[in-house]
């Protein structure tokens, strides 16, 4: 097939899509039908990943139908008969409602799209020639089936149940994310201290060491530092003579280049009574052996045991796979452990792991969490953030003394083709600076490299850039973000009203953000629409529908605060002229980064709460302004008592709401103070030298 200029249509189809087509579709009777759809969908600029999902869904179900009815070619395929029976659930009864609904939707979409394209793009002769390759339409209507509405309703209800469970816990989730990242950062620093001491004093490994964790943890952690040769020699009865000989001579996998240092978590003790502590939050992932691609070389009994564990934590069903791998990123250096460590785990008394991949996962997960819960950013927008002057903007408003800085990401929202402003706090930029430093250290360079955009949904829209969410020379895809979030929050019990365990996911956090902003903080829905960068206010309305748990409940504020100072990287440039003009327009209003009661205002629009700053979703509470909130609470309490004497019940109720908002802000500030104090904790490590 060629266009009017003689160019082959297939030349513009994505290569990865063609590769999938050649491996999975080309030898089946519907090969030409799917090929035509790929050409048409590509001409309409659909994402290759979306085309692949459609093609896969239709092709898999057609395989099922052709096998069941023993069909040999498309002429024998009768949608009114064969599709109808399947959609009614009369065959393949084990298939889910979702599978049937997806097939129905994708089939009709492909058929309608290709027919319409041929009518508008091809002359009569060509249209007649290729009409045979349009999927035959059934005579029934999609509205004849309730499964589409049922699937949509079930999905919405499930999402609302999960949103109801997670929304009240957002402040605690953010605090726990900070604490856990701090914990891994401390361990990383102490391991480096011990390694430095070992090299300076020429101490052989293993070396035992311990240190006291922060007050938030309240435990002393005990470790051993190993490398490959020392571990093999210490467990020689479990290794072959060849491995022992190689370890003794430090050759092959045990040579300096291929050697690897790792720690063994031995135990933890409570600092108050010396009883056994809880230890590291991820220890059970290692004990249960579900980290990474865990299904390899496992018996049926072993697989069943691990599946049972994953299902208890809500990881088994959400993957929609027979054997889910919720803690496998497929990305080198992020969470995953080496083959040596994976095999050596069963030989160790404690839990062994390389700290660096865990720390890398934690800092990127924390950065993602802050943006998901602080601005409702989408996953694809997070992955766009790059170290480029077009993306990172520090706008300075000199009309204020001292000049006021505003921190902005310039990103392209879903369904748009031009960048828009995403306002964040200075602390987001500070954490970004830490990630940049981590990447520079990993690459051994003063700058980070250009990498190709990997998120499948929008891969066709973006080229190479210095994307922040990268490691080992590769940009993260969506699976990496989902996986590191699961890791950072593993073990936290978040349950729906029905008792189901909720797993932290990017889109769920976005829903929680919108729900809290509209239902609890009473921001106008059109303001939340702009914050979420959505086109349709009806979509915002769905996102922000009230949850079951919000009825009669008061929950904490929207934004979180981190450390109070910032060291902006030199690469981050100032605001262009058009953004400066934008701020001139708003400088007389309560706007971005203005000091308000109890914190900092982050909205650049007209004040959504008419200056009622206590409890406002657009404010970032700060511990240094806690006195403002305490005085407000005192005033509200005194006013409540006065209005009671005056018999003004409406005013009494207003003061109760005001007191409740102030209390919630004070609770969140307490959480902030806790992890800020935790971040500054630098314990003295006790090294037990080998001779001891």
TrEMBL record:
Segments forming domain Tyr recombinase: 340-560
Superkingdom, natural source: Bacteria
Record keywords: DNA recombination
Name assigned to this protein: Site-specific integrase
